[in-house]
Amino acid sequence: MIVHDPDHRLWILSGPSSCYVLHLDEAARLRTLHWGPRLTREQALSLLLLPQPERRSMEDPADGVLDLAAAGGLRYGQAGLQVRFADGTRDLDLGYTGERRTDRELVLEFADRHYPLTVECRYRIYGDSDVIERHLVLRNAGEPVTVARADSATWVLPRLNGYRLSCVRGQWAAETRLHRSELPYGETMLTSRRGVTSHQANPWAMIDDGTASEEYGMVYSCALAWSGSWRLTAQRLPTERVTLSAGAGHDPVTWELGSGEELVTPVCAALYTEGGFGAASRAWHDHQLRHVLPHAGETRPVLYNSWEATGFDVSLEGQVQLAEKAARMGIELFVVDDGWFGARTHDAAGLGDWHPNPQRFPHGLGPLIDRVHELGMRFGLWVEPEMVNADSDLYRAHPDWVIHRPHRTRTEHRNQLVLDLSRPQVATWLYRTLDELLAKNDIDFLKWDMNRPFTEAGPDERLWIDHVRTLYDVLDRLRAAHPHVRIESCSSGGGRVDLGILRRTDQVWTSDNTDALDRLDIQHGFSQLYPARVMGAWVTDSPNPYTGRQVPLDFRFHVAMAGVLAIGGALTEWSQADLARAAELVAAYKRIRPLVQHGRQYRLLPPNGELSAVQYLARDGGQLAVLVFRRARRFGHADPGIPLRGLDAQARYRDQATGQVHHGVVLLTHGLFADLAPGDYTSALVHLIREEG
Hints:
Keywords: Glycosidase, Hydrolase. The protein is α+β, with helices and mostly antiparallel strands. The protein is about 20% helix and about 30% strand.
């Protein structure tokens, strides 16, 4: 609900349990008065009576409290909106011009007092979510304007006793590792300058007062829905005011806004929660399942991917052999990875030529697809349509289609160049090529990869932004034209995971690192914002192809069961015992899959101790699954009980494997004692069902 008090120039944006209060001050500056627990109109109006900070020499008390933080005047803090006019003037002098609103949407309108530039602040709230979504719309009616910065939102936090920043850090094969530290004074910038979301950082942040835990405390968080370069700035001023400001692009890239043009920024969403980091994560998960994912109610199938079994050695016979083994294991979706098209017998040729290799598939993909469907599985295909090899028919015909700069070497990475999707002819080719591929073949699933960052892109923001806009447009059009096709976002693993790409895809590839022990940390950080329903997790061979670590089959499976289970090993080399055990574990996952993919997640123990555990609880509370992992057993100590969460204290719960009955109050206080085998890298799955009566 959105309430407007015109006499006091106040707006109250309320969710189920929180609200955001805006006020237009006497200088027509938009201030944030409150972000936190839900307030009534009377309570919100009382905020205007609170003492205001004294004005200090050389400081503007508006610094750090403005919801629309435009550069200008005596404000020297983080400015989310910065422009340069044709005559060289840089500052903005905005006046309020009006508002439009419904019960769920609010638009506040501003205009520069001299130049014909207008700014709209747009807000959206939901009746079943405390998430607030925001973005800006800039319109220019005069001479060209250079937009140096246009953050989608600046979120103003209340004064806390301290400030701690939570985010994720990483690199290729080590994505989304959780990092928490005291927020320093000044500006802390998280960013990607790579043209994609990146492995190194992810566009979200959480702030607490330094005392929040997994179960207790207030948490303020925001996330940017954008799949290109981005910047998120956490600012802590000496006055102890803190803001989070996030938007597309990175320094020094700018956007030229011509006469009659408008710039619409991507959505930035934010959330206030109580109940610690666990409650914050579950609220984000619920919001994505209700309002972001295109088919959130669907259950994602168990997937097999052929890459680690075959590499580039792809053939009809070899894929059929793998498919038959996968089907016997209970696999539901068979995906052919790289090497099926063009001259793609190695990684230096063929990208861009999206037609079946005639030597490997002389009759096209049809015979393989038909066999996979006969086996009762869906068929999926790997593509990397934003890339091209120099050794390809596409590049030989259109060398100017790649991102490049005059008089500069075209940097190849992984023997690839990036197609410039901001060019209309490239956008047209991209859609037509994939539309034809899907129209001519009975394909159910695309693994959409993007394996390298931008280089030689130059300072023109239109390329950086329009590449992503074209990507979104192509995905949207393909989904409309082929509504049965489901899509996975991949970028050398987890290099393109964000709320923007999740609005158009059904799951993401979390990391190229499939080492089960490493994945505990990667998945723990991933779950801070993103739900298990989108987290692709593979079981691969041991020793692991990347780390060389040897881990038991059950441990590998149990780690992958924490998300969307997939298998990526060389099945033709697995023993009969491992194949049989894998089939049992796939069946076990299918029994708990509704809990993992559609239930509520509780991180019981983090992965940095001897034991770690995660729980999934059905939304009606009737079932739960607990996955328990032991890294190493130290000094022969007995494993402690693991207190569960969210249960009915007065209910009883029966273990589906052993028949043992547990009392809810005992599970909540003394905990669950998992039956772990002796030794290192041991794990257990416990499936409990509440007894009636």
